[in-house]
Design goal:
Structural class: alpha/beta
Oligomer: single chain
Strand order of the largest sheet: 2-1-11-10-12-13-14-15-16
Low-confidence stretches: none
Radius of gyration: 23 Å
Mean pLDDT: 91
Strand content: 25-35%
Length: 516
């Protein structure tokens, strides 16, 4: 159960089959394995040793696929970094995981360069690597230049319990936490998913989800394990995506609902132009029934599957096949996240971790071989999250008598906007740093395009005045754009509990009442 195992199998079974497509560049499994082995040798020649962390700040491309695989081939721990983060956020992650090397492509070079102004100390960072298409900037080593002369190294074939990746997710404290996923964790997730949602080796997958998310990372690995083809795009641009899908005969798509809506809203879009598309999986954010009904009508030949999971579970732990039967489409079950997959147990529990009877709401707990090893450098957080041998997801849900899971609330108040996780505490911290703001609360409100939008309820300092535009500019100066509130509401006070905590449920109800 090591993540490069599929490369050996594909090299043996179909060496000349296309493995990756990026733009006009196509490479076979024979070429991919050779480049991976040479890149791994180049990484080791720099002095990087098994277990050291390799951070990758890159848009989706074949070069990123190669580097992630090469990191595992060399026995390294990869840290794919969120490309939407600010330089300060990127620097925090690199410092937190003690990255020994950072690899950057052309699209993220400005972010990497700006990290120097953040004054975040990175004592472990010894190497800055360039994986772009032009000349390496000053201070960066171009991996490509030494590739031809590198002697391919043998695959380390890491043990199942060896750490494979540190993937950062947010936390209620506002600071990202590094989720530790082993080779065995990711393998178990992939096998569990493939048992529920078959992954034929002839499938051509379009990697629209970024590989710094477990959805994109897992989908790439799924293709590598069975010997399928990965087509990459640096970003989701509907017109270009449609043209690429038609040209490459894409069968399989993993998206968030906002991407699906953008696809259907593209002027002149004709679903008949994608006759080879067979499956669309969505997750990471809720989908509205009107959007799902519209998609089912637009793609009568396509299977739609809803999956539920998170970084801490190495991606999906449940799946729901959407049936086209009218009775199913009108039933409550269409709102569920499906049943537990073969690599996971799921239960609904009370605050003490005791399982609750069917139909009772509580916290969603998950157990199984795909569950993370813990949070990097955070033993107390890890112990709390994995108390009793179960992952405490922080999500609220209900399970019916047949084991169908319904996600009804996010206990930790996380907002999911366009598939991105936003943690209110981080946004609230930035807002309250503005001199005009006394108190604030950040919640998610329904949004047709993004699933949810970030909404801020603000209490100003006595006598202070400030515009939403000024608060927006303040937020954009400190955090990524997708985390910034899209709307503001000013109040004289916030609803508080007896303990002085903000009643966010009341705020959500008030916003829902206004929009109803």
């Amino acid at each position: 159960m090591y993540l490069t195992a599929g490369l050996h199998r594909s090299l043996q079974r179909h060496p000349d089959k296309i493995a990756t497509v990026t733009g006009a560049r196509r490479q076979s499994y024979r070429q991919l394995v050779d480049r991976v082995a040479r890149t791994a040798a180049s990484l080791r020649a720099l002095g990087l040793q098994p277990g050291e962390r390799l951070s990758v700040l890159s848009l989706n491309s074949d070069r990123m696929v190669e580097l992630l695989l090469a990191g595992w081939w060399a026995g390294l721990v990869v840290n794919p970094v969120n490309t939407r983060w600010t330089p300060a956020e990127v620097a925090y992650a690199l410092g937190d995981c003690g990255a020994s090397a950072l690899a950057v492509d052309d699209g993220l070079m400005a972010t990497a360069s700006a990290m120097q102004t953040t004054q975040v100390a990175l004592p472990a960072l010894r190497h800055k690597l360039y994986i772009g298409e032009t000349q390496a900037p000053e201070g960066f080593v171009a991996l490509e230049e030494g590739l031809a002369s590198a002697v391919p190294m043998d695959d380390m074939r890491s043990a199942p319990d060896a750490l494979a990746a540190i993937v950062y997710t947010g936390g209620t404290t506002g600071f990202p936490k590094g989720v530790m996923l082993s080779h065995g964790n990711l393998w178990a997730s992939l096998l569990g998913r493939m048992a529920e949602v078959p992954n034929p080796p002839h499938y051509v997958t379009l990697l629209t989800s970024p590989m710094f998310h477990v959805a994109g990372l897992g989908r790439m690995l799924g293709q590598m394990i069975v010997g399928g083809t990965c087509v990459t795009v640096p970003a989701f641009a509907p017109k270009q995506v449609v043209a690429l899908m038609a040209r490459e005969g894409v069968n399989d798509l993993v998206i968030v609902p906002s991407m699906l809506q953008m696809l259907l809203d593209t002027p002149g879009f004709d679903p008949q132009g994608l006759p080879r598309l067979q499956r669309i999986l969505w997750g990471a954010a809720p989908i509205t029934l009107p959007l799902l009904e519209r998609a089912l009508e637009a793609f009568p030949q396509v299977d739609f599957i809803h999956v539920y999971g998170m970084t801490e579970t190495s991606a999906a732990v449940s799946a729901l096949q959407i049936l086209r039967d009218p009775a199913f489409l009108q039933s409550e079950r269409i709102r569920s996240a499906g049943q537990a997959g073969l690599s996971a147990e799921i239960r609904i529990a009370d605050a003490q971790g005791h399982e609750l009877p069917a139909g009772t709401s509580g916290e969603i707990l998950v157990r199984g071989p795909a569950v993370m090893q813990g949070y990097w450098g955070r033993p107390e957080d890890s112990q709390q999250a994995l108390a009793g041998g179960w992952l405490h997801t922080g999500d609220g849900g209900v399970m019916d008598a047949q084991g169908y899971l319904y996600v009804i609330d996010r206990i930790k108040d996380m907002v999911i906007t366009g598939g991105e996780n936003v943690y209110p505490a981080e946004v609230e911290s930035v807002l309250t740093s503005h001199p005009a703001v006394s108190m604030c609360a950040v919640i998610g409100v329904p949004h047709e395009k993004w699933g949810e939008a970030v909404h801020a309820v603000v209490v100003l300092q006595p006598g202070a005045q400030v515009t939403p535009e000024a608060l927006s500019a303040h937020c954009h100066a400190h955090i990524s754009g997708f985390k910034c509130p899209k709307s503001y509401e000013f109040r004289e006070q916030l609803p508080l509990t007896a303990a002085g905590k903000v009643q966010k449920t009341a705020l959500r109800q008030a916003v829902a009442g206004v929009s109803a």
